[in-house]
Design goal:
heterotrimer, A mainly alpha (about 375), B alpha/beta (about 525), C mainly alpha (about 300), A: about 375 residues, mainly alpha, ABC transporter involved in vitamin B12 uptake, BtuC, globular, B: about 525 residues, alpha/beta, Rossmann fold, six-stranded mixed beta sheet, about 30% helix, ABC transporter permease (chain C)
Chain lengths: ~375, ~525, ~300
C-alpha cells in the first residue's frame, strides 16, 4: 500500500559513482532500532525483575545463601555509604562508554569499539597527565590528560570511519577488531616502553597528584563521577539542541532522505564516530586519573560491552543511560562484595546484566512483528 | 456480485466469498465475492487504490485476510502465507517483481518449485528452463542473473516460474506497465495460449482497452468493493466505464474513491493567459539540455533529455514508469551527475546541488527521500536549510517553532503539535510538509514527482492546489506523474518522457491522444482529439 | 627465517586455522541466510567450555568434542528463536548473549570445576599421520600429520560449497539472505531455513570452540578462551565475500598470524613482546580489508528480520 513497500527499483538503481560511500547501516537498521528500543520504564524494570531471581538462583548454585546475598547486595548498593560510593565509582566508566555508543548509534553507526576507544583514551590520559604534565604547569595536568583521552579515543574511532569511507568496510567489524588491537597495544606499552621502573606489575608510572581527579568527601568518590554527569547533560543537549546533533540523528533515522536534503553524509559519519570515540576515551581517563592513577594491565573488566549494553537498554537516551549505568554499577559493586564475602565469582554480574538485554530485544522484536502484521 | 448459484458442473477455479481486509481504520477490501472460471482470462479493473492488488495479495497470502473464504477447484484452502497459495496451485506476478536479485533464472525457477531431492542439478534445471521457455515462446537465458534483467525480462521469469510449477491460476498485477508497445501483443497471445491450455489468469489492470482485447470476463472494484462482474461478451466498454468511473465526478475535483483527478475537458482554459508554450507567462526559467543517466534494470536511464519551462507554467512530464523519471528527478535535485548535460535557471547554469531558491524538489518517495519520519514537523521543515536556524551551533528552537506554526497554518497541515514526529501523520499531511519545505525557499523552479501517490482525495486536491498556487506566483513547475489523467488536468503543457528522452510535447487541453501515443512509443494519429480509451468499442 | 619456513610452523598454522575455519563455514551459511551472528563469540565460548567439561566427565576427548557441538547447537537454537522467530535485533541480542555466556562459563568453571578445567586425555585428538602422504617432504609433513578432526574440518570446505551451490537447501539459504520477502513469496519457508542455518552455525561454532581448546590449547579451559576469535570469524567471512574457499584461505592466513607467537621467540629472541604477536591476527584482518575488493555487497537482507 505505502510508497515504502512498493518503491520502484529504478530509484534504487540510479546511484552515481559520486555516491560510492555506503550509507550508514542506519538507513535500514538504526531507525528500526530506535523504535525497537522504545520500551517503557515498566518493561525495563520487569526485565531486571526477571533477571534478579535468576541471579539469586545462580548465587545459590555456588553454595552461598541467597538471603545473605540479598543483604550483601543491599549493602553494596544503597545500604551503606561505601556501597553508594562504589556504585557511583563503578557507574562512571560504564556511563562514558554508553554515552559514546549512543552518539554513534543515533547516527546509525554501530560503534562496537568502546573497549578499544577507552583503552586508547587511557593511553592518551597517561600521555597527557604524566608525560605532558611533567613539562606543564600543575593546574594543566588534568586538562591535558582529558584532552589526550578524548583525542586518542576519538582518533581511534576515526580509523573505523576512514575504513568505511575508503573501503566500504562495515564499521561494526572494524571497531570490533580495533578493540583487540588497542588492548594489546596498550599491553605492549606497559610491558615495555611505558612500564614503571622497578614495578613487578605491567603498569605505567603513577600520575602526579596534580593530574589526579580530586577525591570527594574524603572517600573513593572522585570528580570523574561529576564529569560523567556533566557529559551526560552535554550529550543530551548536543543531540537535541545543536545543529550537528540534529544532523546526526537525521542521518541515523533516514540516511537517504538526509542526503536528499543535502546533509554531508561522509563528514557526519566521520564526525559522529570521532565524537563517539572521544567520549568513550573519557572512560579510560576516568580510570587512570580517578581510580587507578596508572595505566595498569586489565584495568577494564569489559566496560566496552557493558557500556554498549547500557546504551541499548537505555533506548539510546542519555539520561536513561545514566540511570542504567547506576544499576550496572550497583550490580558490579554487589558482585565484588559477594566475591569477597561469599566466594561468588564476580562474573555473575555479566549474566545478570545480559539477561535484560536479551529479554527486551526479544520482546521488542515480537512487538515490531505484531505492529507490522496489523498495519500491513 | 457473481451469483453463487452458477449451475455448472465444474466448480470455478477460484471462488472467493466475503473477502475482507483492513489496514488500521481503512477497509481496503470490503466483502468481495468473486468467481474465476477454469481456462479463462479474468480482468480485475479499478482505479489506483481501488483494492485490486490488495485483494489479490490477500488471496496469495502476502496479507492475512480478516474474513472470507477461498476455494480452488471446489476445495476450500486456508491461505496464511504464500506457500499455502502456491500449494493450492496459485501463482502471482507482482507489479514490482518479487525475485531474489542475485539468483540466476534457472535457480529462481527451481527455488519456486518444490522438490524432494537434496541435490540440485544445475544443468538439468537450466535445460528444463530453456525447453519450457522455448515452448512458451519466451526469450530467456537460464544463466542470466535476475539483477541484470529488465523489468519485462523479470516478468517473463515470473510467468515461466508459475508455468514450471504448473500453477492452475496466475495472478498478474499490471503486467503491461513494464512492456514496450511491441511486446504487448505477443504477451496477450501468451496469455491466450496459457488459458487455452486450461490455466486461469487474473489480469489486474486499469487499462480498459487491454481488457476487451484479451479477457473472457471482467470484474470492477471500487473503494475496496466488487461493483461489477460479467463475461466480456455480455458487456460493453460504456457499461464497464460507467462502473469504473461513476458519472458526475465533479470537474477538476479528485474522485472520492481513488484520489485520481478526472480530466477536465480543457484544463488550460480555466486560467486565462495560459497558452501552450514555454515562457508564455513569464519567459523561460528552467532550461534543461542533453541530460544523460545510465540505464539500469527497471529503467531506461536518461538519453539526451531536453526541455524548458516558463515562469508561471506547469510542464507535465507524462510517461510509463521506468522511462527515466527517477533519474530526471535525481539529476534536477543535484543528487546525480549528468555528464555533458546542462541545467540553467534564469540563464544561469547550475552545477552540483542547486541552491534552494533556484530549484526545489519534491521527491517521488516521500518516506524514503523526502522525510525523516521519526523527526518532528519542525525539524523536517528545516532539514535542508538548518543554517538559517543555527546560532553558535545551537538550534534556535523558538524560530523553528514560529516558522513551523506558520507553515502548518498556511498549508492546513493537521498535526497534534509541531513537535510531533511526522511518522504519526497521514500521507497527505506528510506530503504537505515536503511541499512546504520545498516552497519555503521561494524557488524559481519546483520539481514535483508523483505528487499525490497514496494520498486520499481531499489531500491530493489540496496538494495540487498548492502546486497551482506556486505556478500562479510565477514559479516554473515540472510536474512528473504516472497518472496521465492527473498530469493532463494539472499541467498547462505536457511533455512525454519515453526511453529517457522527451519525444513530444502538446498543450494539456488538446493533446491527450498525441500524449497517449507518445507514451507507448508510437506517433500520434491524425485526429488529436480522439480519446481511444474512452471510446465505446 | 628457518622457523618461518619450517614444518613445525606451517603444521601449527594448518592446525590453528582449523577452529577459525570451522566456525567461519558455519557463519558463512548463517550470513548467506541473512543472519549476522555477533553472538558467535558466545557460541564458540560455550562450545569450548562444554567440550572440556564433557572430556573431564567422560574421560573421552571425542565425547567432549561432541558435547561442545551439542551445546553449540542448543545455544544456537536459543539464539535462533530470538533473532529468527521473535525478530529480535541481531546486534543487540548478540551483545547480551555474549555477556551471558561469558558470565556463565566463568561461573561454572569456578563452581563445577573448582580444581581447574583440564581435559584428562586428548590423545584421541592427537595427530594421525596419513601413511604415504605424510612422508612427502615439507608439504606432506605440514598437511598430513594433523589431528583427525583437522582433516574433517578441511573436508567441510568443499562440502559447504556443494551445499550452497548444488543443493536445494543451499539455494533456499541464499535466497533467504538475499531477498527474504521475495523468497517467501516464492514459497520458500524463510524462517525455517534461517532456523536451520543458525542451528548448523551453532553446532559448528560449538565444535570449533571444542577444537580450539582440546586440540590447540592442550585441553585447558580458561575464562574467555576464545578471546575475540568469534569477531575474527565475522571479519573473515565478510572479506572472504561469503565464499568457502576464500574463507579457507583467510583462515590459514589468520592461522599463520596466530602461529607467529609460537615461533616469534625463536625468530626475534627473548626481547620481543608477546603482546604484539597476540595483536597480529587482528591487525592482519584490518590490513586484508584494505586489500580486498568490496565490490560484491553480500546478502542484501543480512541482519534484517523477515517481517510480515
Amino acid at each position: 500500500m505505502s510508497g515504502l513497500k512498493h518503491r520502484p527499483p529504478a530509484d534504487a538503481a540510479s546511484a552515481t559513482p559520486a555516491e560510492g560511500l555506503q550509507l550508514p547501516r542506519g538507513s535500514k537498521v538504526a531507525a528500526v532500532l530506535l523504535r525497537l528500543l522504545d520500551h517503557s520504564w515498566v518493561s525495563l524494570v520487569a526485565a531486571f525483575a526477571i533477571s534478579a531471581p535468576i541471579g539469586l538462583v545462580l548465587i545459590a548454585s555456588t553454595g552461598a545463601d541467597p538471603w545473605f546475598a540479598t543483604l550483601v547486595t543491599i549493602d553494596a548498593t544503597v545500604g551503606t555509604v561505601n556501597g553508594i560510593v562504589n556504585t557511583l565509582v563503578y557507574a562512571a566508566p560504564r556511563l562514558f562508554v554508553a554515552l559514546g555508543a549512543i552518539v554513534a548509534l543515533r547516527t546509525g553507526l554501530f560503534n562496537l569499539g568502546g573497549e578499544g576507544q577507552l583503552q586508547m583514551g587511557a593511553l592518551g590520559a597517561i600521555i597527557g597527565g604524566y608525560y605532558a604534565a611533567s613539562i606543564l604547569p600543575g593546574w594543566l595536568g588534568i586538562p591535558a590528560a582529558l584532552v589526550g583521552a578524548v583525542l586518542f579515543g576519538g582518533l581511534w574511532a576515526g580509523i573505523a570511519a576512514l575504513f568505511k569511507l575508503w573501503r566500504g568496510a562495515d564499521e561494526m567489524i572494524v571497531t570490533l577488531l580495533l578493540n583487540f588491537i588497542a588492548t594489546y597495544f596498550v599491553l605492549f606499552l606497559i610491558q615495555g616502553p611505558l612500564r614503571a621502573v622497578n614495578s613487578s606489575f605491567n603498569q605505567s608510572e603513577r600520575v602526579p597528584q596534580t593530574s589526579e581527579l580530586p577525591a570527594l568527601f574524603g572517600t573513593r568518590l572522585h570528580a570523574g563521577v561529576i564529569l560523567a554527569i556533566i557529559v551526560t547533560v552535554l550529550v543530551a543537549v548536543f543531540l537535541s539542541r545543536t545543529r550537528l546533533g540534529l544532523e546526526l540523528r537525521s542521518v541515523g533515522l533516514n540516511a537517504a532522505a538526509s542526503r536528499f536534503q543535502g546533509l554531508p553524509i561522509a563528514a557526519l559519519t566521520v564526525g559522529a564516530l570521532v565524537v563517539s570515540g572521544g567520549i568513550a576515551g573519557l572512560a579510560g581517563a576516568n580510570e587512570v586519573l580517578g581510580t587507578q592513577f596508572r595505566l595498569i594491565q586489565g584495568f577494564s573488566p569489559g566496560y566496552g560491552f557493558e557500556g554498549l549494553a547500557i546504551a541499548f537498554l537505555a533506548g539510546l537516551r542519555p539520561f536513561r543511560a545514566a540511570v542504567l549505568a547506576l544499576v550496572f554499577g550497583g550490580i558490579y559493586s554487589a558482585a565484588t562484595l559477594l566475591q569477597q564475602y561469599a566466594g561468588v565469582p564476580v562474573s555473575i554480574a555479566y549474566v545478570v546484566e545480559g539477561i535484560p538485554i536479551v529479554l527486551l530485544a526479544t520482546f521488542s522484536g515480537l512487538q515490531l512483528l505484531r505492529a507490522k502484521r496489523r498495519k500491513g | 456480485m457473481t451469483g453463487p448459484t452458477d449451475p455448472t458442473d465444474t466448480p470455478p477455479r477460484l471462488r472467493l466469498r466475503g473477502m475482507r481486509r483492513s489496514f488500521g481504520p481503512v477497509v481496503a477490501v470490503r466483502d468481495v465475492d468473486l468467481d474465476v472460471a477454469p481456462g479463462s482470462v479474468h480482468a480485475l479493473l479499478g482505479e489506483n487504490g481501488a483494492g485490486k492488488s490488495t485483494l489479490m495479495n490477500v488471496v496469495y497470502g502476502l496479507h492475512r485476510r480478516d474474513e472470507g473464504s477461498i476455494e480452488v477447484d471446489g476445495t476450500p484452502v486456508d491461505v496464511v502465507r504464500p506457500a499455502d497459495a502456491i500449494a493450492a496451485g496459485l501463482a502471482m506476478v507482482h507489479q514490482h517483481h518479487m525475485l531474489v536479485p542475485s539468483l540466476t533464472v534457472a535457480e529462481t525457477v527451481s527455488l519456486a518449485t518444490p522438490g524432494r531431492r537434496v541435490r540440485w542439478d544445475r544443468g538439468a534445471a537450466a535445460g528444463r528452463v530453456a525447453e519450457l521457455a522455448g515452448s512458451l515462446g519466451l526469450d530467456i537465458d537460464p544463466d542470466d542473473r535476475i539483477e541484470e534483467l529488465t523489468l519485462a525480462g523479470r516478468q517473463r521469469v515470473e510467468i515461466l516460474t508459475a508455468v514450471h510449477r504448473d500453477a492452475k491460476l496466475l495472478i498478474l498485477d499490471e503486467p503491461t506497465a513494464v512492456l514496450a508497445p511491441s511486446e504487448v501483443e505477443p504477451f496477450f497471445e501468451l496469455l491466450r495460449r496459457m488459458a487455452a491450455a486450461g490455466r486461469s489468469i487474473v489480469l489486474i489492470t486499469h487499462r480498459l482497452r487491454e481488457v476487451f482485447a484479451v479477457c473472457d470476463a471482467i470484474s470492477v472494484m471500487r473503494r475496496g468493493a466488487l461493483v461489477f462482474s460479467a463475461p466480456t461478451a455480455r458487456t460493453t466498454t460504456a457499461e464497464v466505464l460507467g462502473h469504473l468511473v461513476p458519472a458526475a465526478a465533479p470537474d477538476g475535483v479528485t474522485d472520492a474513491a481513488t484520489g485520481a483527478v478526472k480530466p477536465h475537458p480543457d484544463a488550460a482554459a480555466r486560467r486565462p493567459g495560459a497558452a501552450g508554450g514555454p515562457g508564455s507567462a513569464g519567459g523561460i526559467v528552467l532550461e534543461v539540455q542533453g541530460l544523460r543517466a545510465p540505464s539500469a534494470p527497471g529503467s531506461t536511464g536518461l538519453d539526451d533529455c531536453s526541455f524548458s519551462v516558463g515562469g508561471g507554467e506547469i510542464l507535465g512530464i507524462a510517461g510509463v514508469e521506468g522511462n527515466g523519471q527517477g533519474e530526471l528527478v535525481r539529476v534536477l535535485a543535484g543528487m546525480a551527475a549528468s555528464p555533458g548535460g546542462r541545467i540553467t535557471v534564469d540563464g544561469e547554469q547550475l552545477t552540483g546541488r542547486p541552491p534552494r531558491d533556484r530549484i526545489a524538489v519534491v521527491p517521488e518517495d516521500r518516506h524514503h527521500d523526502g522525510l525523516v519520519l521519526d523527526l518532528t514537523v519542525e525539524e523536517n521543515l528545516v532539514l535542508d536549510h538548518l543554517g538559517d536556524y543555527t546560532r553558535l551551533g545551537l538550534l534556535q528552537a523558538g524560530a523553528m517553532k514560529k516558522d513551523a506554526t506558520a507553515a502548518v497554518d498556511e498549508y492546513g497541515i493537521v498535526t497534534a503539535s509541531t513537535s510531533s514526529p511526522v511518522r504519526s501523520m497521514s500521507g497527505g499531511n506528510q506530503q504537505k510538509i515536503v511541499l512546504a519545505r520545498a516552497l519555503s525557499g521561494r524557488p524559481r523552479v519546483l520539481v514535483v514527482a508523483q505528487a499525490t501517490r497514496g494520498l486520499d482525495p481531499g489531500a491530493a486536491g489540496a496538494v495540487l492546489d498548492r502546486i497551482r498556487a506556486a505556478r500562479d506566483r510565477g514559479t516554473a513547475v515540472v510536474f512528473i506523474g504516472s497518472d496521465l489523467d492527473e498530469v493532463l488536468s494539472v499541467s498547462d503543457r505536457v511533455a512525454v518522457l519515453f526511453g529517457g528522452r522527451i519525444v513530444g510535447e502538446a498543450p494539456a487541453s488538446t493533446g491527450r491522444a498525441a500524449v497517449t501515443a507518445w507514451m507507448v512509443g508510437s506517433e500520434p494519429e491524425q485526429s488529436p482529439e480522439k480519446r481511444p480509451e474512452e471510446d465505446p468499442a | 627465517m628457518d622457523a618461518i619456513l619450517g614444518v613445525f610452523f606451517w603444521s601449527s598454522v594448518i592446525g590453528l586455522a582449523a577452529p577459525l575455519l570451522l566456525a567461519s563455514l558455519g557463519e558463512t551459511l548463517a550470513q548467506r541466510a541473512g543472519l549476522f551472528t555477533i553472538g558467535i563469540e558466545g557460541l564458540m565460548l560455550g562450545g569450548a567450555f562444554a567440550a572440556v567439561a564433557g572430556a573431564i566427565v567422560s574421560g573421552n576427548a571425542l565425547v567432549g568434542l561432541a558435547a561442545g557441538a551439542f551445546v553449540g547447537l542448543g545455544l544456537g537454537a536459543v539464539y535462533a528463536a530470538m533473532v529468527v522467530l521473535a525478530r529480535a535485533d541481531q546486534v543487540v541480542v548478540g551483545i547480551g548473549f555474549n555477556l551471558i555466556v561469558l558470565g556463565l562459563t566463568s561461573l561454572f568453571r569456578r563452581t563445577l570445576f573448582p580444581g581447574g578445567m583440564t581435559a584428562p586425555d586428548t590423545s584421541l585428538l592427537a595427530p594421525v599421520p596419513i601413511p604415504g602422504l605424510s612422508a612427502v617432504p615439507w608439504l606432506g609433513e605440514v598437511l598430513f600429520d594433523q589431528s583427525p578432526v583437522v582433516y574433517l574440518v578441511y573436508l567441510l570446505v568443499p562440502v559447504t560449497a556443494w551445499v550452497l551451490w548444488r543443493s536445494r537447501w543451499g539455494l533456499a539459504v541464499r535466497a533467504s539472505g538475499d531477498g527474504a520477502v521475495a523468497a517467501s513469496a516464492q514459497g520458500v519457508p524463510v524462517l525455517r531455513v534461517r532456523m536451520q542455518a543458525m542451528l548448523v552455525n551453532g553446532a559448528l561454532a560449538g565444535a570449533a570452540g571444542g577444537i580450539l581448546v582440546l586440540v590447540q590449547s592442550g585441553g585447558v579451559f580458561v575464562d574467555d578462551i576464545t578471546n575475540g576469535r568469534g569477531y575474527l570469524v565475522l571479519a573473515l567471512v565478510m572479506f572472504a565475500r561469503w565464499l568457502p574457499v576464500r574463507v579457507m584461505i583467510g583462515a590459514v592466513v589468520f592461522g599463520a598470524a596466530d602461529a607467529l607467537q609460537y615461533v616469534g621467540q625463536t625468530i626475534v629472541g627473548d626481547g620481543f613482546p608477546p603482546a604484539l604477536f597476540l595483536m597480529a591476527p587482528f591487525v592482519l584482518a584490518l590490513v586484508v580489508w584494505l586489500a580486498v575488493s568490496t565490490k560484491s555487497k553480500g546478502p542484501r537482507d543480512l541482519g534484517l528480520p523477515l517481517l510480515g
